[in-house]
Fold this sequence. Notes:
The protein is of the alpha+beta class. About 20% of the residues lie in helices and about 35% in strands. It contains six helices and 36 strands. The strands form ten sheets. Strands 21, 28, 29, 30, 33 and 34 form a six-stranded mixed sheet that branches. The chain has a four-stranded antiparallel sheet with strand order 6-5-9-10, with no helix packed on it. A four-stranded antiparallel sheet has the order 12-14-17-16, with no helix packed on it.
Amino acid sequence: MSNPLVSEGEWLSDMRKKDSTMQVLHKEEGMRSETLIWPFLIHCIWLGVMGVEASSWTAEVPSSVSGLQGSCIVIPCSFNYPEPEKKPSKFTGIWFKGTHDTIYHPDSSNIIKDYRGRTELVGDLWQKNCSLRIDPLHRSDKGPFHFRVEIKDQNKYSYMHDTVSIAVSSSPDPPSLSVREEVKLGVELSASCSVSHSCPSDSPLLTWSHSGTPSVQSQQLTNGQWKVTSSLTFTPSITDHNQSLVCTAEHRGVKPVKMSKTLNVKYAPVDVKVEGVSSVKEGDSVELRCSSDSNPAAHSYRWHNSRGPLPTGPTITLENVTRLTEALYCTAINTEGQGHSSSLKLNVEYPPEIKVGSACTSDISTVTCLCIVDSEPPGTVEWSLPDGPLPTLPSTRVERHGSITMVTLQRALGFSETVHCHASNTQGNATLSFTVSTNGKDKMSMLYVSIGIAALVVVVILISMSACLLNKKGRRSRSDQPVTSKQDVDTAKGAFSHPSPSRKEQKDTSSEIHTNYYTNDQLYGNMEAEEDGDPYECVDGDDAVYANV
């Protein structure tokens, strides 16, 4: 009776037909009991009613749909009508708000002002689809709404009893995020994020806070809702541990909404290191600790040096540390694996020691002193004299090789007989005295004597050569003079055979001869001496030298 196009007479006629059917069934069943007949009769009545309904004016719409203000909404709708004898040539679909406000009509002039340009029939009436789209959705679009169909040259019908209302929200619901919160390092992980909406033509945009490979799917739900799902595949790293994986849904016209989950990434120990004091005094004890970054936390620790394993535990104590204490490292272990630290060599501090090999040496003119100092930390090394106005001497060269410092001093020979090397650092000091060798001084004296003798010999040779050269030049000059008479020769001979004069006379004669060096008498005297084999003649002729001069 809810269908306004079905008359009361038609309904009574239909009921008579049903009653006739029951009589026939009763005759066929014979003596069946009444208790078996009534359920069958009720079933037949239901089938008859459904047959009538299938060919009557019906519509299917959800009683309520949800939509987001500022977005769009699609009201799903399907309808049915009695099949006419003649195939319809045209359908006209109309939507009403309440009883008389037209919110959609093919002729927009029939639409009330508030809905003009915002509604659209998206269903195909030929396929009995009457779905309506409202875009954008206003807060006042609550309904109720119903559909009316007009079949050209045939019947018209308003489905006033099949109404739908809209629940308009001002903010969207947060997306639904699904991900395994406890994951392993390096193992591929898949997360999904979904959100429901009412606007299939403008679905929300889903984004992730993590890089990876995304994929998007959309599906239609009931009651005018759709769901969009974004899946993200990625490989978690250590930096993802305790970090939030965030999915953001962006709906048109409203602020984005987010959902997040904190990742719990399991990984073996990393960044394993030995922690403790950086420096220790030689002879002291030191406690070292092994630390690491891991999830879960390390449950055991092992210590090692070059000789093998040491006591286990998160800490280790080294007694009586020396400069020879070996480097060591630790291993941290958890359920995911293990990690090793780098080797740690303790910085052991000790006072200076002046090493063997420090000494002073000298050569002809220079003294070189070398002071070799072993200390940690490296300190200062200075040279000094035992006394004097400038007790500190500047070093010539300084070299450092780890804990060894080599300092060289160079000075002129004879600057001092003793020099001190003084070394100091934060742990103490040391001093060593050096005796400067004097062997070089004696060598110097011998050298000076040798040079003097050699110089004297050279001078004598030069003088001898000069005298011989002069004598040869004189002989040549005298031989060029002509001999004119024998008397001159006799006179020259007589001069050599004359008795020897006194010392005074010899002096005068010598002077006279020297003065008249180029006279003929002198010339002949020299010639006679040469003939007699004068012991002072220059041997080998012109190249002879008066060696006895």
